[in-house]
Specification:
Number of helices: 6
Helix content: 25-40%
Order of helices and strands: EHHEEHHEHEEH
Number of strands: 6
Structural class: alpha+beta
Strand order of the largest sheet: 1-3-2
Radius of gyration: 17 Å
Oligomer: single chain
Length: about 150
Amino acid sequence: MEEKYYTIDEVAMKLEVHTKTIRRYIYSGKIQALKVGGQWRIYESALNKYYEDSKCHCSSNVSQDDFCVFMDGQNRTTEDKLQVCSIVDYYVNEQEEAKPIAHEITDVIMSMEGQDQYKFNYIYDSTEKRARFVLWGNATFLEEVAKRLKKFEK
């Protein structure tokens, strides 16, 4: 069976970034791609690897103390004057259903300047059937995440 592949335009639409960003990801090695007939092709396995490799910004052990640590100033992630921490709850039946949100948040981080200034953790509570995401960064980061997550509201 032949593996599915995407064009740069398709991956850019999927990740909701500009095609130039995808080209930068290819040239920097963040996304593996092949040139076929003068056109870049990104195999689905390479896109999945990009998502997996991007998980370094995410952890599945959100502590009850995460907000306290932020409030005590122990988790400062940027030099920005305005620091923001927020919780996003997503109610789904299975943890697998929460992965698209983790991918969206990761994509926002990967598309921003100074990637190490933004981070998130999440945990899935099977009793509550809830994925809880805790995000840290500045207002611009949270605004971009909110824009991306609107499609999950319904």
